């Protein structure tokens, strides 16, 4: 079955289903057993949230979803580390990187772990489209490494018609300006002045590579939080938790391709080797607790 993103015609948000087979036949989720529908190449188009993992957390419009793998099918507990290369986990990462919508289907929660007030009392329910905002690793409740994904619900109008990922001719797509819709989203309010102060210390030069990007309006850099804001990280919006990075190193840092030691060596996650020393201005007091938290999200050390 081709991966298909967005709503499925004929099944509005709130549509109920008796079982996984009905979901599969309707085209909302391609798997009868696995929680993640999709693949690493094209992305994840749907997930089932049913409380199967003890580390899951469902806040309604925000879901902390534990990835696939390492679970004992009989007890539901983790018995080994999860891997990001597993197709389901890698599919969710691809959806995050490409900004692809994910259909969320909630199932009745068993009493093995915890009950969610947002779960249906029986069967399954399609609960709309979410975006994968971020992902990280952590030591789970059962003592094994798990990958987790923060999903945030999309408002009506943020995603229009479904898109099939099969190859298509450019002639199929309409010519003209993209449609514009009005929507309201809940976002964490960041203090722009804090980022401005940190960037000014470095004259917009990246603390990792030293690059300062020149654009028409002047120099450009990005403020990168070491410990993420919002659930479940709850990092503070303060200079001690902020870095001045170029866009490339910001993406690499946020996705675990590079991380920092307590000595502020910049480490390459693939090789495990130091690739440089973080540049630190005399006024910039980086909190090593946030550095350690970020590192633990991406390494087993």
Automatic annotation (TrEMBL):
A Pfam family name for this chain?
SAD_SRA
Residues annotated as transmembrane: none
| SMART domains on file | SRA
For this protein, the record's InterPro entries field holds:
HNH_nuc, PUA-like_sf, SRA-YDG_sf, SRA_YDG, UHRF1/2-like
User: Where do the YDG domain residues begin and end?
Assistant: 6-153
Protein name (database record): YDG domain-containing protein
What are the top taxonomic ranks of the organism?
A: Bacteria, Bacillati, Actinomycetota, Actinomycetes, Streptosporangiales
